[in-house]
Amino acid sequence: AKSVFEKLQEDRKTLPMYPYRDELLQAVYDHQVLVIVGETGSGKTTQIPQYLHEAGYTKRGMIGCTQPRRVAAMSVAARVSQEMGVKLGHEVGYSIRFEDCTSEKTILKYMTDGMLLREFLGEPDLASYSVVMVDEAHERTLSTDILFGLVKDITRFRPDLKLLISSATLDAEKFSDYFDSAPIFKIPGRRFPVEIHYTKAPEADYLDAAIVTALQIHVTQQPGDGDILVFLTGQEEIETAEEILKHRTRGLGTKIPELIICPIYANLPTELQAKIFEPTPEGARKVVLATNIAETSLTIDGIKYVIDPGFCKMKSYNPRTGMESLLVTPISKASANQRSGRSGRTGPGKCFRLYTAYNYYNDLDDNTVPEIQRTNLANVVLSLKSLGIHDLLNFDFMDPPPAEALLKALELLFALSALNKLGELTKVGRRMAEFPLDPMLSKMIVASEKYQCSDEVISIAAMLSVGGSIFYRPKDKQVHADTARMNFHTGNVGDHTALLKIYSSWKETNYSTQWCYENYIQATAILENEVMVPTGMVKLDWVRSMKRARDIRDQLEGLLERVEIELTSNSNDLDAIKKAITAGFFPHSAKLQKNGSYRTVKYPQTVYIHPSSGLAQVLPRWVVYHELVLTTKEYMRQVTELKPD
Ligand code: ADP
Ligand code: MG
């Protein structure tokens, strides 16, 4: 019998990439920079680094491969380590924010684009790498765009460094032009015809339409003929769809074949991610509920039907107000085509677009606007400044950000004392840049030195970094959950200090899992809605998330040492903690109005304290908030009383 390893080696040889192995290696040998284009699933991400390793490139340095998404970096590294028959984290590893799964042995390193950007801070010439592959370049994330400028610069003084830019779309000329006419290596795709179906009229409720379509396919088509992939916008939506699907399939009776529901999104616990890659058992069908991640970052085999409601969650930024929000937005034509392509990888496929043909041709943009043109740039500006890049207006951007957004970022960093009047990095700024956090959070940590409460402040920062609402509120236990929540708000001192109290109480129980359950605490990122459908998965997530807060805290503690801030505790002086928070978040301050609303200070806007906040009834005269979330109103979330020095 064949071993698993032998089987994997055979599979590698069936990938579209394989026949081009030698030609590709020759092209890499001949050119310093190469643009590589190939259909999703051809083997770019998993095979190219292995080919280069087999050809000896790892003898003089690591091969680094960037991914825009955390899940993709982890999953691909896991796959490649299997293919190479090594333990994940040894020869093959990954590195994502707050999680480094690499070792001295690592020669193939998958990482988020943001992590490679951070590596520049410690190693401006990337000396430990022999090859850098900027993968999924078409995604044009903020970090990828910045990386372009930096790696392009390095290739000039490191002729031995090989640079690969790989992308799924055929828009390769733009990349080639930018990289001084780098040659384009095309891997001919294997794409089967895809039948596209549009709806006759726009759908009022795309989630429901998606579920109905999935069930129709499942019930009317032969079970063995292929799986279903549904594109949804985020975790909450996926969880809702999962619940409804479970409920409705139960109602179908026993004659209908099994429908295996597989969610996949950025925060999905690792244990559950592997499920989407498991082959579907005979007689059953799989329905994968995915975010954009399945568009190009992850290849899922066996998909025959794609359901595309036509939306994704996208960051948008208003440079005038400095306000950033995550909105459900129509996708671009390029995205729609990537999505439909997912159904035609292994045989002819079908794509159900839950919008009209008119919508597709007339309403959708051709391409997604690069993130750099719709995001807050404070973080990037701080990183670039600490890399010694001062003239940002003349940085070699592939598509420059709006000048207004750059100015806004400079203004914020100046207000936080990270930059001086000349726009140069200050000592505070240099320290802030060490933390892989939003500048306001980094400033809060750096300021904690003065108020001698760094111990408390890094716990708060860790809890905030896990993201979203911390409290879990099952439908049948709302009263219990609310009581548990209010316990942490005793004294109504503010949400940041409540987070601190949660963390410290958990620590006192010696990080007990049971304690989390008993207190209805979770920490998954929930944007619109703090009431969640209780599923087994959520429970898994919530314990894991407290553990994650602990991991993050440990790392922040290490970084404190690096910037030479002593770990000092001042837990009884809440004013000191509030002062540190205010030092970071004063750009997010708001003043109480007569009617109980608040007015933000810098760019006046009416906002409210989120009802889940411990201060919702207290209404201090001045507050600072962590973030704004728009639901029925513009709400401030994670609020604390403002306390100036
Ligand atoms: P590309 O980067 O060109 O889109 P990949 O290298 O990601 O292609 O994938 C090539 C093939 O490897 C896929 O078709 C799939 O069969 C397999 N594969 C990739 N990742 C995984 C994984 N995590 N688990 C199982 N199989 C995988
Ligand atoms: Mg890939």
Count the beta strands: 21
Biggest beta sheet attributes: 8 strands, mixed
Q: Uncertain segments of ≥5 residues (pLDDT<50)? A: 523-541
Report the β-strand fraction as a percent range: 15-25%
What form results from the Cα inertia axes?
A: globular
Give the distance, in angstroms, between the N- and C-terminal Cα atoms.
72 Å
User: Mean pLDDT, rounded to whole units?
Assistant: 89
| Helix percentage | 25-40%
Number of helices: 22
Largest sheet strand order: 4-3-5-2-6-7-1-8
State Rg.
25 Å
- Quickly give the structural class: alpha/beta
Small-molecule binders: adenosine-5'-diphosphate, magnesium ion
Keywords: ATP-binding, Helicase, Hydrolase, mRNA processing, mRNA splicing, Nucleotide-binding, Spliceosome
Family: Belongs to the DEAD box helicase family. DEAH subfamily. PRP2 sub-subfamily.
Organism: Actinidia chinensis var. chinensis
Catalytic activity: ATP + H2O = ADP + phosphate + H(+)
Describe this structure in words.
By secondary structure, the chain is of the alpha/beta class. Helices cover 39% and strands 18% of the residues. The protein is built from 22 helices and 21 strands. The strands form 4 sheets. It has an 8-stranded mixed beta sheet with strand order 4-3-5-2-6-7-1-8, sandwiched between helices. The termini are far apart. 48% of the residues are buried. Mean pLDDT is 89; it is low at 523-541. It binds adenosine-5'-diphosphate and magnesium ion. Magnesium ion binds at residues 44-45, 135. Adenosine-5'-diphosphate is lined by residues 15, 38, 40-47, 75-76, 78-79, 277, 299, 301. One of its GO terms (molecular function) is ATP binding. Its EC number is 3.6.4.13.
